Amino acid sequence: MTQVGHSTARALLHRLAVEQAECRVPSLTAAIVRDGRTAWFGGRGRVGGAAPTAATQYRIGSITKSMVAVVVMRLRDEGVLRLTDPLDEHLPGTELGHLTIAQLLSHTAGLTAEPPTAWWERTPGVPAADLLERLGPGDLKHRPGRRFHYSNVGFAVLGELIARRRGTTWLKALRAEVLDPLGMTATTARPRAPHATGYAVHPWADVVLTEPEHDADAMGPAGQLWSTPHDLARWAIFLGGDTGGVLCPDTLAEMREPAGVDDGDAWTGGFGLGLQLARNGGRRLAGHTGSMPGFLATVWAEPRDGLGALFMANTTAGMTGTLLYDLLDILEEHEPRLPDEWRPVPADPDLLALTGLWHWGPKPYALRMLPERGLSLEPVSGGGRASRFVPQDDGTWLGLDGYYAGETLRVAADHLDLNTFIFTREPYDPAAPVPGGPGDWHA
């Protein structure tokens, strides 16, 4: 399974071994994916008296949410729902009817974090109808859209939405539409052999306590699933862009767009549509963390470099929180990715004539051609508004990112019209439709 060099594999295994030993984790597995395949796998500790393997199951907790979100986005792409729909259009009769599907996916609905039941992670669950009946105005903790507030309850609600729209359970829909097509056949709702037992490790002694495991019922979409390093590696590959036909790549990219941030003294993480986001060492990561009694897991993907990383452990708490970042750093240090070779490509003469220097008022911008007939417009120096554009059938150009995302660029003979802002070859060209100040440049 290892596709990295010996010294790289040794360094990765050493970092994993340090985490397992110093954090006193009963068993710990980790893997790195690169370019659509598992590049490295490691396991430490014991499960049933043997070292864990890529086929050993662990509970993945809230990583479940990212998979449930994919089914919701499939419903959107099919036209069954819109992300702006209020919940009442799909689950009528609840006290949450004014919340939108997008708000639930991005944890910006203001909904309470935990359900109005006994501690749901440690007690048998209640049916969805019972949970929805219990939710009332007091379970709305913030004005919808005001802020990021993580909500397990929100994904329980989304699971029931899937059940209603698909006419089956959320789990059966997930298996038929996502897990089976991706070959994730070892991802299940309850454990199957070989699986790790969930443990709590005593804070002051080297002894363990077995943690509970049960069917969370209505709360299942928030954290029910078990999986293996092998299956979770496929999920990392999916998150990196190889969707296997399960989801439109553009839809997955939409899920990775930040919709809210986890605010604090200094934030480095946020949330898209069902996906957690993190920025670390120049990387833009998308995936999800997971925890349930006796288990911790995380999966990250970096689409830009075709990388992903994951770990799975059977401990309730105590890990460093930097393991995957460190593993990616080790890979970068030992086997940095070579940039793609530069090669000349054919250029449309009309597009080539557009390239070069343009001015937004007195500020110079550079217009460059990108592969696949794209354009980029960015300041020559310093900060400022920068965006990429793709051609449209009507001759205009659509902004992909930055300030001008979704906006229209129109090209004229002597100027660019970018959503009413005029770019000219010379600063404030007096012949432009909207010139600069009156008079001439003067000392």
From TrEMBL:
Every Beta-lactamase-related domain range: 20-318
Species per Swiss-Prot/TrEMBL record: Nonomuraea solani
Name of the protein described by the UniProt record: CubicO group peptidase, beta-lactamase class C family
Residue ranges annotated for the DUF7586 domain, each copy included: 348-425
Pfam families to which the protein is assigned, alphabetical: Beta-lactamase, DUF7586
Coiled coil: none
InterPro entries cross-referenced by the UniProt entry: AmpC-like, Beta-lactam-related, Beta-lactam/transpept-like, DUF7586
